[in-house]
Design brief:
One of its GO terms (molecular function) is catalytic activity. The radius of gyration is 38 Å and the shape is elongated. Among the domains are: 351-506; 517-784 and 819-832, Endonuclease/exonuclease/phosphatase (Deoxyribonuclease I, Chain A, 4-Layer Sandwich). Strand 4 and strand 5 (46-49) form a beta hairpin. It has a 6-stranded mixed sheet with strand order 14-13-10-9-17-18. A 6-stranded mixed sheet has the order 32-33-31-30-43-42. It is built from 13 helices and 43 strands. It has 877 residues and is an alpha+beta fold.
Length: 877
């Protein structure tokens, strides 16, 4: 049983004068209908609530007023709801509207007639045919052409019996007996209160069919009200009955704006709810115009509690069409919404293919299908999920995950613009069912994050056991297309499942792929690890514990001899670095790791750092710092100072000098330095980073730690993709990009704006390159939804309210490496060569393997000597 917010169209549509009653109709079956009409009546000082109980018994309906005991009987499941006398040539359209109060399997028992000019009844003049379900409204017109011109659709029936004038009474017959009437059959309506000459009459809400005319149950336009009008919508107050229905495609037209701005009434199916105060509707398949240039859907702003409506409700909406931020809508906040019936089959979705004909950020790209139920036959890949928490949305891309322009191409403004234009045709947003920011943590109780769901939207939602990753796919996406906040997006349909195929799960494991070698080095951005609370990192001891556990878990799994850390708190006492070392040693064993004690480096809140295993490597000499004091081209108010340290591998005695770096980000500008965003794909501060690269190469060429070694490695977050000027500057100065060399074009460590690439590097000079065994970028972070990070469900300390997470589906935290940062770690394996005194023993069967290994080592040493000579020939600018 469903309680409708307003009654079925015939007896509960708000009148044109707004004289609606507070009514509810409850449908339980074909043989029982409970009708409750509450209204206040003053009896002395007391208000008495009237309750009408309606019981269907066979073909009759018995209505009893418990206060007066009055009972009336009606035998009709059909009712006259409106009549119209038109202004077009010949006085057309002339029409009668009838609506079904219940399912009627055989309409032939009903007919119409008219009493012209007070001449009395002529009996039934036209018999209906077919069937109707509760809520259906039928139109009987004197002809079709004028009716269609005026109302935008053809009538249900045509007959000369509908050739009524504004002074004629109209009768509804059932089995030859009058069961409903408009006007008095024996009175000429001219000059009477019920005259509707060149106008309309419409039945008020709450009245039932009766063979006795009651003028108080009707609203009249007044005579000559529609003179000079050519369409129903052309009059400031058009006919409010189903005679006045306007099709959505008529409102939408083929242009970018609605064609009508005066009040309309439409009847269509709710396809998607948009909280808190709107929903999408679309014409039934039988009512479309077949024109691919006109949309059959539109959004309705009702300003009401949309929880009373359900997808699949057929509704009549009265309101005013308009454009709202390039999206057509009907504003029904001062109009009405009436449920005609529920559980109606949804319209057939329209196929939409990507790439689109234009940008999915341009409002005109999908104008012809705006507000409509659509289906994407393409397989779409998850490419961005940063806004899942705040806006409930995911960016999907046709084909494959896009890489950053400068991952594959050299900076170029024209080519970059073309690249982005093409990308914008391939992307679409999957949004949630509301426009409330941070909806899952709004209101009195938390709610799940919307995707993925199981068993139909909105069931399920994100959880530790129900997750997705970047690179996963979705096929056959269905939803309603809306242009909002500058982009086209798909709104979900209740009951449709939005789940993803785990394509990317096999690319992640509990540990990075083995890099072999006798020495392992990692570059690891630890995403603002601060032991000082309420700064850039954790807001409470609990969050700090969670953040530490994730980072420690990742470092434990990597099991590196040396780790260069980026984005760690900058302090005199190295507190954050020490805290991580202690946390790691608590897990892997006391004394396993130590750190390079640097104290504060530069003036930024964050710095870079080294931790290492003292059992496998030792420090050689003091560390060195590259900042503006060393080279004025290295601007340390933009770039964080670089930290350089030489390590000696205890097993071989070989040395390696490593520089860990964090160059200027792409976000804030460097306009004050004369280094603007050139629009070439490098974003802000490209030359500030390039100059830092040149300064770094020059500084390392001077052997700043006096290592007396030719093995130099650059690691860290350089904030530049592989084809950008900052990286090219290092390549031309003798360094090799190890990700490109060993992983290839598919390498990535970071996600931004739905595009992947790598900002995190290992760059080896020539002599060191010959000793690299393998390289791996461990995709444990960039592919993970940020909600799986260390944040908890409580608002603590100085934490902004939107930063806490929803625990509606349980805590999303696990003490594992996943989403320990927003950058992926780069892990590099080395076989450092001791090339002194290599002696190959005499041949013999027993030592063939040893001979082979030594010959291979000797060949590598020869290659290393050649590389060393070439390295020393380099000229650094």
């Amino acid at each position: 049983m469903k309680v409708l917010p307003v009654a079925l169209s015939a007896i509960a549509v708000t009148s044109v004068l707004g004289q609606s009653k507070n009514q509810q109709i409850i449908h339980t079956s074909d043989t029982e209908r409970d009708f409750q009409d509450t209204k206040d009546k003053d009896i002395g000082e007391q208000k008495i609530l009237e309750e009408y109980i309606v019981q269907e018994r066979g073909d009759s309906v018995s209505i009893e007023d418990p206060l007066s005991g009055r009972r009336m009987v009606t035998a009709s499941d059909l009712i006259i709801t409106g009549v119209f006398d038109g202004p077009l040539s010949g006085g057309v359209p002339k029409a009668i509207e009838l609506c079904a109060l219940a399912d009627i399997s055989d309409l032939s028992i009903y007919g119409i007639g008219s009493a012209n000019n007070g001449g009395g009844t002529d009996g039934e003049e036209f018999a209906l045919s077919g069937s109707a379900v509760a809520g259906d409204c039928l139109t009987v017109a004197s002809e079709s052409a004028g009716f269609t011109t005026y109302f935008g659709e053809a009538p249900t029936f045509t007959t000369s019996a509908a050739s009524i004038n504004g002074d004629d009474a109209v009768e509804l017959f059932q089995n030859g007996e009058v069961v409903d009437v408009l006007g008095y059959q024996n009175v000429d309506g001219t000059g009477q209160g019920w005259e509707y000459l060149d106008g309309w009459a419409y039945r008020n809400s709450g009245s039932l069919p009766s063979s006795t005319f009651d003028i108080n149950k009707w609203t009249f336009s007044g005579t000559n009200a529609v003179d000079s009008c050519t369409t129903n919508s052309g009059w400031p107050t058009p006919s409010p009955s189903a005679l006045g229905l306007t099709r959505i495609h008529t409102i939408q037209g083929s242009s970018s704006s609605v064609t009508l701005t005066s009040p309309v009434k439409v009847e269509a199916i709710i396809t998607s709810i948009l909280m808190p105060a709107g929903f999408f509707i679309q014409e039934e398949d039988s009512d479309v115009d077949g024109d691919s240039n006109t949309s059959e859907g539109i959004i309705v702003f009702c300003g009401c509690d949309v929880s009373m409506y359900t997808v699949g409700d057929l509704v009549q909406v009265s309101g005013v069409p308009s454009e709202f931020y390039s999206m057509s809508q009907i504003d029904a906040s001062s109009g009405s919404v009436t449920i005609v019936r529920s559980n109606v089959a949804l319209p057939t979705p329209t196929d939409i293919s990507l790439p689109a004909s234009g940008s999915t950020s341009a409002s005109d790209t999908f104008e012809s299908v705006e507000g409509m139920l659509v289906h994407f036959p393409d397989t779409l890949v998850v490419s961005e999920y940063f806004e899942l928490a705040r806006y409930g949305q995911i960016v999907l891309t046709e084909g494959s995950r896009p890489y950053q322009f400068t991952h594959d191409f050299s900076p170029n403004a024209t080519e970059y613009a073309s690249f982005m234009d093409a990308l914008e045709t391939r992307r679409i947003i999957l949004d949630d069912d509301n426009d409330v920011q941070n909806y899952p943590i709004s209101g009195e109780s938390d709610k799940p994050y919307p995707y993925p769901n199981r068993g139909g939207f909105p069931n399920g939602g994100l959880s530790l056991g129900n997750r997705f990753r970047g690179g996963d796919t979705i096929s056959g996406l269905v939803g309603v297309l809306q242009y909002s906040f500058g982009s086209w997006r798909v709104r979900p349909v209740a009951g449709v499942e939005y789940a993803f195929t785990s394509v990317n799960v096999d690319q992640w494991s509990s540990a990075p792929s083995s890099v072999d070698g006798s020495l392992k080095v990692a570059s690891f951005n630890v995403l603002n690890y601060f032991t000082t609370l309420n700064e850039r990192g954790a807001n409470s001891d609990d969050e700090l514990d969670r953040q530490r556990a994730k980072i420690v878990s990742a470092m434990q799994v990597m099991d590196c001899d040396i780790l260069g850390l980026i984005e760690i708190e900058n302090s005199d006492d190295d507190a954050a670095t020490i805290d991580l070392v202690n946390g790691l040693n608590d897990v892997v064993g006391d004394g396993t790791y130590n750190y390079v004690a640097t104290g504060q480096i530069g003036t930024d809140e964050i710095k870079v750092a080294f931790i290492y295993k003292p059992t496998t490597v030792s420090l050689v000499g003091d560390f060195a710092i590259l900042d503006s004091n060393v080279d004025s081209d290295f601007i340390d108010t933009k770039n964080r100072p670089s930290l350089i340290q030489t390590f000696e591998q205890i097993a071989t005695g070989e040395k390696i000098t490593i520089s860990v770096n964090h160059f200027k980000s792409k976000g804030s500008s460097c306009n004050s330095l004369g280094d603007p965003n050139l629009g070439d794909g490098q974003a802000n501060c490209s030359q500030t980073r390039a100059k830092a690269s040149i300064a770094l190469a020059n500084f390392l060429a001077s052997d700043p730690t006096n290592s007396q070694s030719d093995n130099f490695l650059i690691i860290g977050d350089l904030n530049a993709y592989r084809k950008e000027d900052a990286i090219t500057a290092l390549i031309t100065r003798g360094y090799t990009d190890l990700a490109e060399e060993f992983v290839g074009d598919s390498a990535y460590s970071y996600l931004f704006d739905g595009q992947i690439g790598y900002l995190d590097y290992g760059l080896a000079n020539g002599p060191l390159l010959t000793q690299v065994s393998a390289v791996n970028i461990w995709n444990a972070n960039a592919d993970e939804v940020p909600l799986f990070d260390y944040n908890n469900c409580a608002e603590e300390g100085d934490e902004a309210s939107f930063r806490r997470e929803s625990c509606a589906n349980g805590d999303l935290y696990a003490p594992d490496p996943l989403r320990s940062s927003d950058h992926d770690a780069v892990v590099i394996g080395f076989d450092l060569l001791d090339c002194d005194n290599i002696e190959i023993p005499p041949g013999g069967k027993s030592n063939k393997l040893e001979q082979l290994e030594l010959r291979t080592k000797k060949e590598k040493c020869v290659a290393r000597r050649i590389a060393r000579r070439e390295w020393k020939k380099q000229i650094f600018y």
